[in-house]
Amino acid sequence: MVLRSSFDAFAKPIDSVRERSVSGGFITLLASATAAVLLISQLFIYLQVQTRHSMHLAHSVPSILFNNGGAAARKLVLNGQYHIPLKLHVTFPHLQCNSLDYAHDGNDSSSGKFEHYHSKPYTFTKRMPTLEEYKTAVGTKNTNRGSELQKQRREGCTVSGTIHIPRVGGTLSVSVSPDAWRRATSVLAFGMDLTGGSGNTEQVDPFHGRLPNVTHYVHDVTFGAPFPPGKNPLQGAHHVMDNGSGVALANVAVKLVPTTYKRTFHSERETYQASVSRHIVEPATLAAQRSMLLPGLMITYDFTPLAVRHVEKRENVFVFLSSLVGIVGGVFVTVGLVSGCLVNSAQAVAKKMD
């Protein structure tokens, strides 16, 4: 028992030797409050995420021609070696599904080529929009309700789905079908169907004596996995063709930046950031350029040669613990030194005054 007290590293002073005072209690309270504030601030700093960005050359991949690569090339793409998923969700509130066509790099749905190169379940589907999709596509100006709104909803079409595309530039379009466009222009110009259509009014004139209104709402277009810290610029875009005819081409150019995203305690994830520029091409411009493009939506995308690495991390936990220990010990040692100096100074002054 004597040996233990002799080598006690934390020996306590005897209670009779201690001198309790108001100033000593105030100093202890001040030291405790300072330590608590520093502890909370250190914890707040530790919980903050530090973001680091770096740029490097993107990994090059073979330029697989999805049109001419054959079955072997398509198998490589669909197996996930050189492809990313492309998700599309767009609503045309004034265009029926039988008058709508979609295509990717020249492979359109009307000829059957699209389904040949994008087999299920990786393909797009056309359907009547839901009530919420239709309301979003027509905007807040539409105040019709009930049966009238349901009837108008049947005049619209929603294209949605996911396909896998090679990691090379390409073009995706959703537009009036060539057959519907020929019928509409022939009926409008000559008052009759010159394309050999039957007597069915809907088939002869699908747009009731007017040009097709290709106003549309892009709910979502996503290339690859989304980038969580950033907002998708291809989401929630309303392209209104307010030129009187409703005919125009929404041309959207997309630059995709390969991005590696890593969060604390999570594995790395390959994502893509998108830089978007868009403009509406009026029918007069299309006619002047003798363009073969049909009214609707055209998305042209390409990949940048530079990639971005986005890393979110916290301070090392051992550094954090060391800081906490240093704060507690440092505060009390510092306060003890300061209070000792003040007490000794006061005692020296008191002796000289005596």
Report on the structure:
Residues 6-101 form the Endoplasmic reticulum vesicle transporter N-terminal domain. The chain has 354 residues and is α+β, with helices and mostly antiparallel strands. The chain has one domain (54-312). Helices cover 34% and strands 28% of the residues. The protein has ten helices and 13 strands. Strands 1, 3, 4, 7, 10, 11, 12 and 13 form an eight-stranded mixed β-sheet that branches. Strand 10 and strand 11 form a beta hairpin. Helix 2 (22-47) runs antiparallel to helix 10 (317-353). The protein is elongated and about 120 Å long. Mean pLDDT is 78; it is low at 64-69 and 198-202.
The number of helical elements comes to 10
How is the biggest beta sheet arranged? 8 strands, mixed
Number of strand elements: 13
Order of helices and strands: HHEHEEEHEHHEEHHEEEEHEEH
Count of folded domains: 1
Shape annotation = elongated
Mean pLDDT across the residues is: 78
Class inferred from helices and paired strands: alpha+beta
Beta fraction of the residues? Answer: 25-35%
Distance between the termini: 46 Å
Poorly predicted runs: 64-69, 198-202
Considering DSSP H and I runs of 4 or more, what fraction of the residues is helical? Answer: 25-40%
Task: From the alpha carbons, calculate the radius of gyration and give it in angstroms.
Answer: 35 Å
